Amino acid sequence: MSTVVKKSINFTLNGEPVTAPEGTVILDAAKQKGVFITNLCSNPKLKPFAACRTCMVETVVDGKKELVYSCTHPVAEGMEVTTNTEETDRYNKACLEMLLVEHPLDCPICDKSGVCPLQDNTDALSLYNGRFEIQRRNEPSIKTNPLIEFYLNRCIMCGMCVRICDEIQGVQALDYHKRGYKIKIGTANEEPLDCEFCGQCITVCPTGALMDLSSEARGLAAMFTNTETTCNFCSWGCTIKLETKKGKLIRIEGDETLGVGINEGNLCAKGRFGHGMVQNKKRLQTPMMNVGGEFKEISWDEAIQTIAERITTTVNRSGPESVAAVGGETLTNEENYLLQKLFRGVIGSNQVTNLNHVRAPYINAFQQKCIEGGIVSKPITELAEADVVLMFNTDVPSEYPVAGNSIRKGAIYTGTDILIANPRNVEFKHESRTEVRMTYKPETDAAIANRISKILIDNNLIDTAKTKEAIPNYDDFVSSLEKFTGSYTEEFTGVRDAELTRAAERLGRNADRFILIGNDIIDTGQGEAILNALLNLSLLLHHGGEGSVSIYPPREHCNSQGVNDMGMVPDYLPGYRPLNDAKAISRLSSSWGTGKLDKLLQKDMVADLWKNCSQGAIKLLLIAGENPCHSSNRPSTVKEALRTVPFLVVQDMYMTETASLADIVLPTCSYAEKEGTFTNMSRHVQRVASAVLPEGESRPDFEIFHDLAQALDKPFTHSSPSEVQKEIEKMAPCYQGTFPGKKSVQWTPEESGHKPEFAPTIETTIEDSPQGYPMKLISNNHMFHIGSYTHYAKALVDIGPSCVAEISPEDSEAMDIKSGDLIRIKSEMGFLDIPVAVTDRTTPGLVYVPKNWVDVPVNKLRNGDRGLIPVRINKQG
Amino acid sequence: MDTPDSENKAEETATEATPEEKKICMETVNRILDSFPSRTRRYLIPMMSKIQAEFRYLPEDIIKFLMKELKITRAEIYGVISFYHQFRVTEPGKYIYKLCYGTACFVKGATIIADKLKEKYHIGQGDTDPSKLFTLEFASCLGNCGAAPMAIIGDDTHGNIDPEKTIEICNTYTL
């Protein structure tokens, strides 16, 4: 809830007393109460518009009767609202009849049939015999873009698509064109649609005028089987509806039902059109064994037996710590829990980790410090009610597109102020009155946050005395900030101190503050310094300011949070219990029936996983659903490690680069074929449900771990994800009450606020570039791609076919490089030849290259762990 | 575009497209935009009217410039342009031939005149003849019903025209 309190209004609805916040329109208030009022152009996410004129109700205020449109008329104190009177029905019917004159009644072949508000409204008003002759329009459908079909004959000019594109998505690729009876919605001059392809317009379209072209099936949405589940791409965790027909996954839709999921039915291009990766013939169909460099199909029994035997012999010969596992950031919580149970409980090895942890082990520590400091963070469902949002080094439309939707809605309804700190001039269109832009020099992130903290303290924008009392090392923190004076920071970061002061002043005021941190901070090589600085800033605001602070750790994939929660890390047992927590250990050993677990305090081999593989300390590695050969920042080291490790098992859906190095490859199920839960970056535990049968012989990772335990002669006692969930609730008490994840509950930390402490201010500098490499390369996820699988979804490849670098107009001019030119990006480690685009998004001295193309391996340019990559660019050809 | 620096740059990029003329053209646009209190979307329609008064239509380059300056999208600006009949995005002929299609002119034979123009110049509503002499536009009532059928060519009003007379009148206009 925002800190701005809205007055409650009491009124009656069809005689029943109702209360609603001030400013609520009658229609929304009725919807909350479960009273249906006919309407075609209203959506709680959008501003009132009154295009369709079919939502008239009767109101009486102070004895004066009035007929009003319920979608634009706010409730008033003492108002008596009556719906469906003879009079209003007459008006509403007349308007609907007019709409039906031109609307082709081609319901049997319409995508919306069965879930069509026009049908529902026609039925609700019992409009069975229209008085007018049907005058069908007969214009051809427009299919000039690969994903969204415009069949304007069905359009009723409600303007929902135009409005959602503008207000919620901030793109405004659609608008009304011409006027009068020639009016139609579309792009400028009917040019092919060129937008973010979020497909929100398809969700809101009440008639099937806009259709999803990525699905092969047409007609009768009511005949589809809907499965509510959680998207498996980014860590935002949107609830999606998988629509299946005769065992085929046809398409994905958002679910706008009130209170479902965290995303209010908003989806992005990946979530909506990425279903091509599920039922795909390129997927691994059977288990395979690498015999002298060639993969041979084997049976599941043989595969499991071989792996189990190898594990047993390796443990006998070299001890349990020589067997390691990498958990999957796209595996469910239950699967990751079982994997660590298999390793800790059955094999006796504590060598469990995940790639997020290998790369940035400080993120879990950051999260724990936030919790210890008392910052529990609100559920992300309240983002639209934030008073101020700080987007820190995150390109929201690409990284968390649906977060952008909530923030834009907040800007309209709550008056959210927006602060954007980023080295790139990222685009974020919104309707907020206040936007503070802090476009800083690359690698100066931490200084920005530290300077804001210093301004908060120096200018007394927060209650410093209260903070000092609450946090013991306050004085140390203050003195560590001494360096960040206005002139130093301005010089160092290139951001005017006035801007930083504006940001600090806004953050200091009483507010519900949300801080979103981008995964880009990891790539700067200064992740820990940046997170410390942001943690300190949050602690200041939490203890010294009024209102609240919500800050979430940067997580990349759908279950990057859950994989850590479930203890797939060497330093924590499930639920972030430390390894030396005797109570937690005894809880695990008694429940697992494995006797003492004291052997788990062994040498941490996975902290430097790749080195230990290369040097032979790790002799068997199991990778569940990850492709470090492409995603790691040190691909050559990873490949060498995986080639050296004596036995490598990879569980994956596709033959990735990593899988091709394995000794045994096990085909696994996609998220649409298994049961479980994902935990999103804001700790909401959400259900994953199966909608289709597994592809080929693939099996859920869940079953594979069960079979391995069985083959190792210590079978697990549980058999289904729900039984595992019960065990997780006991072993990781913070997860209590979150399962089965249908309600998107946020898990609550067990102990919060017991040890607030400022983290050390880590000094950062701008990395010196080697001679001859004057520019810096920034890389992150493309708007239409994430992880290893989006390239198997045809629809996403259609809209994001090739990798294009981006440079600033200034650099373009200086180097005489134009959009479309082929450039060579050269670092000390290698080079890439790719086409370039000149955009305002990029700032001088930066090159941006998305990291998702296997044929454009950006990470190969990287020299080990260093932050941003120093490069030079030349025009080719 | 507030600083002199960036202004020069805009001119330079314009120069790249086509020399001299374009530079002058961008200077004019900047002058028009500067005559408004601010470069914001609220002045879009008067800005476009002034630009069209100067250039007789809205050239693509200027539309792109406006999109950037006023921070509006392509769909939005074309939405406004296509709403108002007076805005043109293609270069019109030297004279706009406004043929009245109001009720009086219509019943007195405006359609026959339109046919005649089609026969002679191969132009229908909104079209420009190949020599770029005339652009034909059908107007709703032009308020001179007593002289129906009538037309306004350029700035001249011609009443009581008939098919033959139309051609005669047209012939008096040259490039």
Q: What is the element layout, followed by pairings?
A:
The complex is a heterodimer of chains A (877) and B (175).
Chain A lengths: L7 E6 L2 E6 L4 H7 L23 E6 L2 E6 L10 E3 L3 H17 L14 H8 L23 E3 L9 H9 L6 E3 L6 E3 L13 H5 L5 E3 L12 E6 L8 E7 L2 E7 L14 H5 L14 E4 L2 E4 L2 H19 L4 E5 L5 H15 L4 E3 H5 L2 H11 L15 E5 L3 H4 L1 H13 L3 E6 L12 E5 L5 H14 L5 H7 L3 H7 L5 H8 L3 H12 L2 E7 L2 H4 L3 H18 L2 E6 L7 H6 L6 E2 L3 E2 L3 H11 L16 H6 L5 E5 L3 H4 L3 H10 L2 E6 L11 E4 L8 E4 L4 E5 L12 H11 L9 H11 L13 E2 L28 E4 L15 H6 L5 E3 L1 H7 L6 E5 L4 E8 L7 E3 L20 E7 L2
Parallel strand pairs in A: 1-5, 15-16, 15-24, 17-18, 17-20, 18-19, 20-21, 24-25, 25-26, 30-34, 31-33
Antiparallel strand pairs in A: 1-2, 3-4, 3-5, 6-9, 7-8, 10-11, 11-12, 13-14, 13-26, 22-23, 27-28, 28-29, 30-35, 31-34, 32-33, 32-35
Helix pairs in contact in A: 7-25, 8-25, 8-26, 10-19, 13-16, 13-17, 13-19, 14-19
Chain B lengths: L3 H14 L3 H14 L9 H12 L4 H11 L3 H10 L11 E6 L2 H19 L12 E6 L11 E3 L2 E3 L4 H9 L4
Parallel strand pairs in B: 1-2
Antiparallel strand pairs in B: 1-3, 3-4
What does this molecule look like?
The complex is a heterodimer of chains A (877) and B (175). Chain A contains 28 helices and 35 strands. With 877 residues, chain A is α/β, with parallel strands linked by helices. Chain A folds into 5 domains: 8-84, Ubiquitin-like (UB roll), CATH 3.10.20.740; 105-112 and 134-277, 2-Layer Sandwich (Alpha-Beta Plaits), CATH 3.30.70; 288-351 and 570-746, Rossmann fold (3-Layer(aba) Sandwich), CATH 3.40.50; 362-399 and 419-424 and 436-552, Dimethylsulfoxide Reductase, domain 2, CATH 3.40.228; 775-875, Barwin-like endoglucanases. In chain A, the strands form 9 sheets. Chain A has a 7-stranded mixed β-sheet. Chain A has a 6-stranded mixed β-barrel with strand order 30-34-31-33-32-35. In chain A, strand 22 and strand 23 form a beta hairpin. Chain A is globular. By secondary structure, chain B is of the alpha+beta class. Chain B has 2 domains: 4-83; 95-171, Glutaredoxin, CATH 3.40.30.10. Chain B is 51% helix and 10% strand. In chain B, helix 1 runs antiparallel to helix 2 and helix 2 runs antiparallel to helix 3 (44-55). The longest helix of chain B has 19 residues, at 103-121. Chain B is elongated, with a radius of gyration of 19 Å. Chain A binds chain B through residues 171-179, 186-189, 191, and chain B through 72-79, 82-83.
